[in-house]
Fold these 2 entries.
Entry 1:
Amino acid sequence: MKASSNQSPMQRSLSLLTAALAFTLSACSMLKPDDARPQPQPGAPILAPALPDKGDPEARFSAAMALWQRNDIAEAEAALKALTDDFPEFSGPWTNLGILYAKSNRRALAVAALSRAATLNAKNDVAFNWLGILNREAGDLERARLAYQKALDANPDSALAHYNLAILLDAHLKQPQAALPHYAAYQQLSGTDDLKVLAWVAEIKATTPPEQTPEPVQT
């Protein structure tokens, strides 16, 4: 815990993430194209009756997000759950459903949904970021570190992943020097001078010999 802030490590991470990540996914960026679905071969027997039209998944995803933005949380959750039932191959609904579960303290459901999202889309930095949060809250710091690193592997420009990894390294793993480049990357990528982060960085540098200060992360 740093004397320069009254926030706990958990408060540090969640103060930014809960507001910022809820609507970061777009239907277009996270839904697989229609041609990713297996197509029947000519002459293949029909083993089941045709399913009714399930509608446009992108339109349904947008409608679910609109419900969330209106704070109709139960309706948004039901809409996202229906999407995961009808289109289980799409990463976006699983991610946002996992976020809803996480924000309502249903950890097991959140981990399952976010893990499914990350499996479906290895570039889903938002899902990995939330898995990092959940693992950190559960005390599994190494899994949290790996999840944050996977978020950065998927998207090196994720300011929030840099922020959360810095918090983990600094306040939890007691590796403040390793946290410095991630604090710097967060400040650069977010385009803001976060006074709390500036204070934490100053405190680390005050107790770190200059030759041991790591180089900034290249973004």
Note: The two ends are 28 Å apart (CA to CA).
Entry 2:
Amino acid sequence: MFYGKRCFAAAVPGAPAIAVHALAASHPGANTRAIEGICLEVEAGTRVALVGPNGAGKSTLLKVIAGLLAPQAGEVRVHGHAVGACHHRVAYLPQRGEIDWRFPITLRRLVLTGRYAHLGWLRRPGARDHAVADAMIERLGLAHLAERQIGELSGGQQQRALLARALAQEADVLLLDEPFNAVDARTRDLIAEVLLDLCRQGKTALVSTHDLDRLPDDFDRVVALRDGHLLADTPAPHYGQVAFAA
């Protein structure tokens, strides 16, 4: 179980937030590898955009770093530790389409599940857990919708609810899979603002996105994948100089 054991190892001094070496992985049941030979280091306090066409391996890479998909080769470390050594340190935001929005749960209860990384399965959320969840709901402008069933939310509201859940985990590393996909301008600006605030606090964001127009404004670095391989790793302001067809 992902939260069956609670481990709270301290970050290794001087270690990057994310370190990936010669990583390879495939989807369950697939005969070919979705990513191959990926080497990447992400320093703490940076916003890194992960770009590439559909099928490039972006989601696979995020899931391996999150510990949701086992690598077939290579190594992943988060703040110097092997994946799974400290679950509370990494928050993963899936694509909105992976969530069953018909599930009978309110927005507040959804966000509160972000605290489970600290609680394990058997402990009930306490006063602080509720306070953190409510603060994240307020931060994402969703307080007036807190008791709404999640399927009644708009697409942009659902995306903000998922981000609020990830933030409620109070993780050091955020892995966000397409948070800007099919959202309104207000939601897009709010997510970008939240990511900037978090990185100013020393937290790290690795974000899969197809939104290339605002990369220099919203990110510090851009990592590009194609056909499961690393194509480019460049400062965001220089990304336009890299020949890459998204």
Note: Strands lie at 18-25, 35-42, 47-51, 73-78, 81-82, 90-93, 173-177, 204-208, 221-226, 229-235.
